Amino acid sequence: MSLRQSNLEYSALKKYFDGKSSKEEDELMKKWLSGFDEEYRHENFLHLLWNGFKPEEKNEDVDLSPLLDKIHHTIHLRNGNITKTKRLAPHSKPKIEFNLLLKNLGRVAAIFLLPVMVYLSWEMYSQKAWIENQADIVYYEIRSPQGAQSQFELPDGTTGNLNNGSRLKYPSKFTGKNREIELYGEAYLDVKHSKSHPFIVHTAGLDVKVLGTSLNIYSYPDEEYQEVSLKSGSIELIREEEDREVVIAKMKPGQHAVYNFGDTKNSTIKKNTEKELVVLKDKEQLQKIAPKLKSNQQAMVNIHGGELYMEYADIDRYTGWTEGKLILRNEPLDIMLKRIGRWYGVKFNINAQNINKYTYWATFEEENIEEVLKLLSLTGPLKFEILPRQKVKDGSYKIQEIDVSIK
Q: Cα(233)–Cα(211) distance, rounded to whole angstroms?
């Protein structure tokens, strides 16, 4: 038999510990054992010994003395002191010295610790990879100028449209638990579904958390209100409070929410006068009432000094801009003029009091700004004056301004 130190046959090892090897094999095995000088060979030896032990094959009548002799001899070889071991009586139970038991337990424990060490190594590798991954992240920004719209696709497959005068900031790749972007303006989003990685849109008002859905968000930084319209799926309106995520409201398909976080006394974002207003005490009541709202009802609750309105509405009214339609439905005049101004890239100067007592219903699609102004003046008491555009030093022109007054 040939026993190479780098390639030990398991059958020879088992014969040796079972006391069935010949004298020649015993001598070769002892020589191999005494040659332990590298840690990895020691580990391989332990694995072979451990894997060969099967508890279900134990029998009370088996004589363990040959095995004990071999273990004693192996330990002494490892320590460099070869001494004789006392052979036990044939029917006596093996007695193992306390220090020997500790040594063997330590080796067995080392085998059990291998998976733990592997896990810790993987965690360290993952942490290092995550840090390196973060260093590779680049943030991009999509800008849609006044009077224009943009289409986009994000790294996770989420697609959408960006309305005029809007900005969208997003990373080159999404990492971590959440997929997070920042919106300044209005966007329609068709979010790629991922249950384990929620999609969060940060805005000037409440943040919007979704898993996979289609929705419209209107949140310009220069306006003190925002609107969220849900076409499909489900979303949560959230905000960060003391480093924790607080759910303000949950929305279902067909629901439209308006959050007014400005001066509520002077705000024109008020209740829909055509619907019954249900005033609630807190967001907990809103969670219960919102799913049960009827088409003729609108719920309102105070949130951190602001007012949150929620109702069922015609969502196409808020998403029509993605199809080139500007849809206005019974809105206060100053809000309506802001929407028209963003749509056509102009600025309205309102020179009249109590102008918000007038409301309009209109849908504009292919009309230019002059045609829109003519239609509004023909159907209401408004008068418009288009001012000459002013040229600046660099040769460009300021935004077109239009004065608005009552006839």
A: 8
Contact 149, 141 (CB under 8 A): no
Residue 152 pairs in a beta bridge with: 160
- DSSP character string of 300-327: EEEETTEEEEEEE--THHHHGGGGT-EE
Contact 400, 348 (CB under 8 A): no
pTM for the whole thing?
A: 0.65
Tokens of 54: 């099967």
Can you give the pLDDT of all 407 residues of the chain as single tens digits? 444 443 456 666 667 666 677 777 777 776 666 654 545 555 565 565 555 554 444 444 545 555 555 555 555 554 444 444 444 444 444 444 545 555 555 555 555 555 555 555 555 555 555 555 555 688 999 999 887 899 999 999 999 999 999 999 999 999 889 999 999 999 999 999 998 999 999 999 999 999 889 999 999 988 889 999 999 999 999 988 877 889 999 999 999 999 998 765 445 555 566 788 899 988 889 988 888 898 889 999 998 778 999 999 999 999 999 999 999 888 788 888 989 998 998 999 998 877 777 888 889 998 999 999 999 999 888 899 999 988 888 888 888 999 999 88
- Burial letters for 368-389: b for 16+ Cβ neighbours within 10 Å, e otherwise? ebeebbeebeeeeebebeeeee
CA dihedral 206, 208, 209, 210 (to 10 degrees): 160
